[in-house]
């Protein structure tokens, strides 16, 4: 089986061509191949497949084999893969995801896709749509003896964003694991710990549902901008800085969030 290893600001993926080969059990394959000691190593596995409603379909699986609704860094990587491989040589393409059909604009340099802009759709604040078991999308949870105010938002997948704490490693690992599986989140949640920085954007540490600590999260960066702007902490256009790099996020007048950032091919191989 041929594969391509890619990353979006450190959030790394194994891309499998599902146009030409059948993947019988992608969940089990993800758990095996994403293992960093016994497999290829990645945050997730992406299967590029045909679609009847878009240029391609993206199915993504976390390291634990679970299938999330969407992945912002993953969709940029898939867009670059489709363009560079010739599977979809368009500067404007559409990708079918479990969160709907999303549009991508491709910036090309030297015949290769370098940066991609994704229409991530409108953020959802309805607790039932996120989902969060609360009458409000803003909740305060007591974890390890401290109260954290969390702004919950869906970007097709559930996020809980706090500007109350930007923790060091040990605390980040403990709180991330506890909050992801808190009973208030029926489908678990991605957790973003944030602080406003001197440039007017935000520094963010992400605990990703099904993966744990990751260097970046595209849907998470969008959730942070939506949460920060809703609370008057951030402007509607800002750079969100994550451990692996930065993403430019715009909450446009049409209500949609637009994410722009790079995607890189690391290597290709056979397993």
Which features characterize this protein?
271 residues; alpha+beta; Diaminopimelate Epimerase, Chain A, domain 1
Write the layout of secondary structure elements.
Layout: E1 2-8, E2 11-17, H1 26-33, E3 44-49, E4 56-62, H2 72-85, E5 92-97, E6 100-109, E7 112-119, E8 138-143, E9 146-154, E10 158-162, H3 169-180, E11 190-196, E12 202-208, E13 212-214, H4 218-230, E14 237-242, E15 245-251, E16 257-262, E17 264-270
Parallel strand pairs: 2-3, 4-5, 10-11, 12-14
Antiparallel strand pairs: 1-2, 1-17, 3-4, 5-6, 6-7, 7-16, 8-9, 9-10, 11-12, 12-13, 14-15, 15-16
Outline:
The chain is α+β, with helices and mostly antiparallel strands and 271 residues long.
According to CATH, what is the class of the largest domain? Alpha Beta
Shape: globular
Fourth CATH level, the homologous superfamily of the largest domain: Diaminopimelate Epimerase, Chain A, domain 1
Query: Runs with pLDDT <50, length 5+?
Result: none
The biggest beta sheet reads: 17 strands, mixed
Order of helices and strands: EEHEEHEEEEEEHEEEHEEEE
- Indicate the proportion of strand residues: 35-45%
Task: Classify the fold: give the CATH topology of the largest domain.
Answer: Diaminopimelate Epimerase, Chain A, domain 1
Number of alpha- plus pi-helical segments? 4
Work out the number of β strands: 17
Overall number of structural domains: 2
CATH architecture of the largest domain: Roll
- Our Rg estimate from Cα atoms comes to 18 Å
Question: Structural class of the helix and strand makeup?
Answer: alpha+beta
The pLDDT mean sits at 97
Distance separating the two termini: 5 Å
In which range does the helix fraction lie? 10-25%
